[in-house]
Amino acid sequence: MQNPTLLWLDALTYSLDRSIMNFAIRKAFIATTAATLTFFSGLLPTLATVFDQQEVEQSDFVAVAAPVGTGNAYQLLVLEQISDEQLCWEEVGSNPTRIDPLLLTFDFTGLCGRSTDSNGYSIRRDGQDLGLQYSLRIVRRDDQLVLLGVPGDRTQPEFVIARSNGIAPDFVKLSLEPGWRFTRRVFGERALGHIYFTQGVTPPGAITFQDAANDIYANEIRQAVQLGFISGFPDNTFRPQSPLTREQLVSMVLESLDTLPNINLTIPTQASAAPYPDVEASRWSAAKIQFARTNNIVSGYQDGTFRPAQAVTRAELMAVLRRAAEYGRSLQGLSPQLDAQQQPTNFIDIDAHWGASLIRQMSTYCRVASPLNESGNQFAPDTAAQRNYAAAATLRMLTCTQPQETPETPETQEILPPGAPQPQEDPQFQIPPPQEPPQLQFPQPQEPPQPQQPQPQEPPQPQEPPQPQQPSQQLPILEPQESLPFQEAPPDDAGVTP
After folding, report:
1. How many whole angstroms separate alpha carbon 368 and alpha carbon 364?
2. In the list 42, 170, 281, 335, which could disulfide-bond 271, CB 3.0-4.6 Å?
């Protein structure tokens, strides 16, 4: 019979061995977990820099507060106008501006984009992707809806990104706060469907003005200045809300037409005679006004005057841009007819106006005519055209006047972590999804991934342009009230390319 003391010692030794082993296992597990967490915490900044951003046309995007359930809660929805073939949404009213999601009524494949959760949009600030650190949330504050960037770490600040300027139990537009803009996520050289709410980091090569950085037309102002048909002032300002005069508009439009491919306008530097009784031949704009009148781009008033220093109205701006587009197409050997690129905008304040027909026409032509301040459904035809909108509208006219190529639809599949579930959309606004490409795998930390490239497509063969046609000797006469472009100022203060 074994000694009970020895049996007790054996049991005690076994128990101690198991305790020591369990402690070692727990210690090893804790150490492994800590190392893993340390690895991933070090990886987050790396993953945040895997992606880059691409500047986009701001008017092609809208942030929407979409009601969920009874309308007491809202979910963020981002819509994109990919093609001008059919409008994806329409804006109605103001304070708040309601959004009619037209893409719900047709197959929007290749025409519209939509993102409904964090797999389709996130925050990017100062060049860093904050999708893993911040979430986007819509809350009620001070009788309006506010889009917030909410940090996972409570010690970090939250961001106010957009506001609705009112509340309605409907789809409501969220207007971005100054300093925020839309950009697109880029992986390598590949543009993705993921949309950023972006703050900071000036686009490469951008020409910036301190007073236009947060302007609703900031991106189009930058492009217009880079093309050279409008400029800033010596004090590094653009003065985006200053009115544009009729002579300034003439100068800007002619300079813009000179940027068309393979076009070299020969504009005399000196007028041969006074083009109008109130425009002397020695005036800085006289030669350009004479050229524009000769080519039926502008006309004067019924009393025979031109009124060069008078502010041009938004309706007059549309009249001049329509004639400029017709003339620009003729210079390229194209038909001067302006074919509609999209459905007309339903402006509520132009029905009895002399320019109603041409304003509706120009709203179908790359949205040259768009609502006042890009919001609501009023055009304000008799309001003075400001420099920011004039630059943007002229840029849109140029874009539509050039021969159009079939655009490639941007990649809309998002890169998700392995095994991540597909997002579930609220049934309130589920949209039949377009066919999407196969899911890409999230890049592994140990080596850069090789992103799948879309199957290359043969670019469309350019159409052989017809034989160049000389501009019509007599294009349609501008409406009686129409006026012309840009403000008189000394050469160092004109704010336009002389």
Report:
1. 8
2. 281
